[in-house]
Design goal:
By secondary structure, the chain is of the alpha/beta class. The chain has one domain: Rossmann fold (3-Layer(aba) Sandwich). Helices cover 33% and strands 20% of the residues. The protein contains eight helices and seven strands. Helix 1 runs parallel beside helix 3.
Length: 227
């Protein structure tokens, strides 16, 4: 998410310090210590301003939710929202999801949310898409087998690309829809989602079941050739 630079960012971040994990790598393998007795560990990739984050945490108070956002200007708004709601089961990390294996241990996560990521429409940037097999490989290492990725986007080409990637990697896809809210609002919306739903843009969504990852053969050949 891109936002205008905030002059008062640091003071605002400091006021929400209890919600920010400043050294997340130190918690690798021990995230549940933040909330002993939690029923599950969920991670949201790219939480933006935190509407979905806060409402999900509020709706599932027994679940520990970790929100990842590399734009600190967006993340501070999300933290302020969580603080104003008095939430105790959500924490935030400002980092790039490409480093997710440095932060979470193998099979530590129960569920991963990927909401409205940058589509990176140019073909040469395909590897930057958060549903590219390179990222799927990382997710399958930190999400437990049988755990799930929940993916939403308004971008139809990105969704079709993603579904093809899931299939190529042998991952099971459930509850796939290309018009989530056709018959009425389903689940918790992000702020971005509300905006585009109001404009009549169909929302694509699916759930992907995690399993030990096997890189597709064509990708292996490409990597071997590049090496």
């Amino acid at each position: 998410m891109r936002m205008r630079r905030m002059r008062n960012l640091e003071p605002r971040m400091e006021k929400c310090a209890d919600y920010r994990i400043a050294q997340p790598e130190e918690r690798k393998g021990h995230w549940r210590d933040l909330m002993p007795g939690c029923t599950a560990l969920w991670v949201e990739v790219g939480c933006g301003k935190g509407k979905f984050t806060a409402e999900t945490a509020q709706a599932d108070p027994d679940v520990l939710l970790i929100a990842v956002e590399r734009c600190r200007e967006a993340m501070v708004v999300a933290m302020e929202k969580a603080k104003s709601m008095g939430l105790k089961n959500v924490f935030f990390i400002d980092m790039d999801v490409a480093n997710i294996e440095d932060i979470f241990a193998g099979e530590e996560i129960d569920r991963l949310f990927i909401n409205f990521p940058d589509p990176w429409p140019r073909k040469k940037n395909a590897k930057r898409r958060l549903t590219h097999r390179g990222f799927l490989d990382k997710y399958c290492r930190v999400v437990k087998p049988g755990g799930e990725f929940h993916f939403k986007t308004d971008n139809a080409p990105l969704f079709e690309f993603s579904v093809e990637e899931f299939a190529a990697c042998g991952l099971e896809v459930k509850n796939l829809t290309r018009d989530l809210h056709k018959d009425g609002i389903v689940g918790i919306m992000t702020g971005y989602e509300e905006k585009f739903h109001a404009l009549g843009t169909p929302i694509n969504r699916c759930e992907v079941v995690c399993k030990p990852f096997v890189m597709p053969k064509e990708e292996k050949k490409t990597e071997e050739a590049e090496a």
